[in-house]
């Protein structure tokens, strides 16, 4: 089997592990940013400029040209979120007696894998497998908001082959298609009593999109990268309680990532990052009854644009050890005007720390820890005039959330690095 064939097989086998994993959303709305153990130590600052090594392909496919030879990068991230919803005065009286949500957060492991293969001095091929979106929230079976949610689950899996090309010594470009699987399962109570049954909405779909990017090495110590992930239109088909077969169109947000890495000294680097996610794409997906051929309900999500700003620093303590720290702020697409019991998201701060150990020229280990802080106590107000409100079931509440995230990574070079050029021996002549 050729090197390229092995790369595809290894990447595909690793991504297959994703089929058994579900993500707990830790980027805005139900997005997942935890795709790189190395980049997480920097709070993902500079990821689009290659600060995460080969795993930066998630933000910018042009990074595929930054690693010579044949390489793979395997990552696994444990996301342990915690979130509670506490009903307040104004909630429909028979509901408030059912109590608070309990901890709706569900821990999950998120794998991601990346591989590249250098064809020649200019041309590179790459393949990544990741889960860019995911969500699990599960409150108590009986609680005050049960008519609005009992459980929510979103699962995605995508494959992204790319072709990268070095235009010259300082500029690289890359692009490739994205094949994505999307699965949605939502449940809620059919009534206000503790014994009420659960209604459901579920469906799935495969669809296509693409990624593209550019990396420019502006000087010996300055690298800038810009990456783009397209929106993907999922034509979800499934079923709903009391309706039968249904279908819906759901557009995922496109993402633009900008990264900058600036060397301050030989061993010290600063990284900056910015991400824009166009969550307005998602709108209000209509749920269409296949039998009736018309919409019978809708999901009034109405998300806004999401923005992420990050700053990170890394220092090479020795040729083997590198340490990292990072901070970030995210402006969520969810605020008091569109927050629901399924996803009580809000603006948040991040603090990260991480390290890498280069065991040899072929092997590197990465580990990072990140903590998520809510920017404040948020509120939910499902009252007359709100799109999600169901008369007469007014629901008002406060929410509180945080998360601990641990990520580990393994980088491996499958081929042998070229031997360093011999140092010429000075010619000595006798006169």
What characteristics describe this protein?
431 residues, single chain, 5% helix, 3 helices, mainly beta, 14-stranded antiparallel β-barrel
The major β-sheet equals:
14 strands, antiparallel, barrel
Overall strand count: 20
The number of distinct helices, counting runs of at least 4 residues, comes to: 3
Helix/strand/pairing category: mainly beta
Which regions contain 5 or more consecutive residues with pLDDT less than 50?
Answer: 1-23
Strand content: over 45%
Q: How many whole angstroms does the radius of gyration measure?
A: 24 Å
Fraction of helical residues: under 10%
Strand order across the biggest sheet? 1-2-3-5-6-7-8-11-12-15-16-17-18-20
Q: Please give the alpha-carbon distance between the first and last residues.
A: 59 Å
Order of helices and strands: HHEHEEEEEEEEEEEEEEEEEEE
Protein topology:
Blueprint: H1 3-16, H2 37-40, E1 70-87, H3 93-96, E2 108-118, E3 123-130, E4 134-137, E5 151-166, E6 171-189, E7 198-219, E8 222-229, E9 233-240, E10 244-251, E11 255-263, E12 268-277, E13 286-289, E14 294-298, E15 306-316, E16 321-331, E17 348-358, E18 363-374, E19 378-382, E20 395-413
Antiparallel strand pairs: 1-2, 1-20, 2-3, 3-5, 4-5, 5-6, 6-7, 7-8, 7-9, 8-11, 9-10, 10-13, 11-12, 12-15, 13-14, 15-16, 16-17, 17-18, 18-20, 19-20
Please tell me about this protein's structure.
- The protein is mainly beta.
- 5% of the residues lie in helices and 51% in strands.
- The protein contains 3 helices and 20 strands.
- It has helices at 3-16, 37-40, 93-96; strands at 70-87, 108-118, 123-130, 134-137, 151-166, 171-189, 198-219, 222-229, 233-240, 244-251, 255-263, 268-277, 286-289, 294-298, 306-316, 321-331, 348-358, 363-374, 378-382, 395-413.
- A 14-stranded antiparallel β-barrel has the order 1-2-3-5-6-7-8-11-12-15-16-17-18-20.
- Strand 7 and strand 8 (222-229) form a beta hairpin.
- It is elongated and about 85 Å long.
């Amino acid at each position: 089997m050729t090197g390229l064939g092995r790369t595809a097989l290894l990447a595909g086998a690793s991504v297959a592990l994703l089929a058994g994993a579900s993500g707990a959303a830790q980027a805005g709305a139900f997005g997942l940013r935890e795709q790189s153990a190395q980049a997480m130590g920097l709070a993902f600052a500079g990821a689009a400029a290659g600060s995460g090594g080969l795993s930066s392909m998630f933000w910018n496919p042009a990074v595929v040209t930054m690693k010579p030879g044949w390489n793979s990068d395997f990552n696994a991230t444990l996301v342990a979120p915690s979130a509670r919803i506490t009903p307040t005065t104004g909630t429909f009286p028979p509901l408030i007696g059912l109590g608070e949500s309990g901890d709706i957060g569900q821990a999950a492991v998120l794998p991601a894998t990346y591989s590249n293969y250098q064809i020649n001095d200019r041309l590179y091929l790459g393949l990544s497998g990741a889960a860019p979106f995911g969500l699990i929230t599960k409150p108590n079976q009986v609680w005050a908001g049960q008519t609005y949610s009992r459980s929510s689950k979103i699962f995605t899996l995508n494959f992204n082959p790319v072709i990268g090309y070095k235009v010259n010594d300082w500029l690289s470009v890359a692009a490739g298609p994205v094949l994505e699987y999307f699965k949605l399962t939502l449940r809620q109570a059919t009534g206000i009593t503790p014994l009420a049954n659960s209604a459901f909405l579920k469906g799935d779909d495969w669809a296509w999109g693409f990624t593209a990017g550019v990396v420019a090495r502006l000087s010996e110590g300055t690298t800038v990268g810009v990456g783009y992930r397209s929106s993907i239109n999922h034509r979800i088909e499934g079923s709903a309680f009391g309706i039968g077969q249904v279908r819906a169109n759901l557009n995922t947000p496109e993402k633009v990532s900008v990264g900058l890495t600036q060397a301050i000294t030989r061993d010290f680097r600063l990284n900056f990052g910015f991400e824009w996610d166009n969550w307005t794409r998602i709108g209000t997906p209509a749920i269409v009854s296949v039998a009736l051929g018309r919409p019978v309900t809708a999901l009034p999500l109405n998300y806004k644009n999401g923005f992420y700003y990050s700053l990170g620093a890394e220092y090479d303590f020795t040729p083997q050890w590198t340490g990292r720290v990072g901070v970030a702020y995210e402006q969520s697409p969810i605020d008091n005007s569109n927050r629901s019991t399924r996803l009580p998201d809000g603006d948040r701060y991040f603090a990260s720390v991480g390290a890498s150990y280069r065991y040899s020229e072929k092997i590197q280990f990465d580990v990072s820890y990140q903590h998520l802080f809510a920017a404040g106590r948020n509120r939910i107000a499902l009252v007359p005039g709100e799109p999600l409100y169901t008369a007469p079931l007014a629901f008002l509440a406060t929410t509180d959330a945080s998360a601990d995230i641990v990520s580990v990574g393994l980088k491996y070079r499958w081929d042998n690095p070229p031997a360093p050029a011999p140092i010429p021996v000075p010619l000595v002549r006798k006169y």
